[in-house]
Amino acid sequence: MKLDEKISERYPKLKETTDYYNRSHEKRPIFWEDNVAAELSIVAAEPDILTWEFTVKEKHCNQLGNLHGGCVATLIDICSSFAVLVSSRKLWTLIGISTDLSVSYMRGVSEGETIRIVCEVQRVGSTLANIFTRVYDQEKHLCYSGSHTKFNIDSRL
Asked: What is the separation, in whole angstroms, between the first and last Cα of the chain?
């Protein structure tokens, strides 16, 4: 997972969390999200909007050569989770846990393409956050979208 230096200066909590994520993933067994983390890059951040890029590799595709639906859901889950760290509203210490994730599949993306994942924070409260994500192909066609609800676990630790 990569983060532009200018973004990390503006959002230190985002940098701290991506650094932790990268370090913790180096010292343990392979987990599901490790299949996509190395290809993820945060390319833009502003209040309530976090934008990523991801290059689709063969290991991310189904037998038809398109980005696998489960991989799409994983990308939306991970990317939108990090978006709570650029909220202009209440800031959480951690990225929380998922309570609901809904994904719409509109257009396939082939191996080798770089997609843009735009996560928009719609609401962050004391216990719940709602994030809407749009995934675009290189021609800026909307390919996938997702709605994600997160539960704040800050007080539980």
From this structure: 25
Interatomic CA distance for residues 17 and 146, integer angstroms: 22
Q: How confident is the model at residue 26 (pLDDT cuts 50, 70, 90)?
A: low
Q: Does residue 133 contact residue 101 with C-beta atoms inside 8 Å?
A: no
Q: How far apart are CA 17 and CA 23, in angstroms?
A: 10
Confidence of residue 27 (pLDDT cuts 50, 70, 90): low
Name the percent of the chain lying above pLDDT 70: 94
Q: What is the DSSP track for the chain?
A: -EE-HHHHHH-HHHHHHHHHHHHHHHSS---TTHHHHTTEEEEEEETTEEEEEEE--GGGB-TTSBB-HHHHHHHHHHHHHHHGGG-SSPPPSS--EEEEEEEEE-S--BTT-EEEEEEEEEEE-SSEEEEEEEEE-TT--EEEEEEEEEE--GGG-
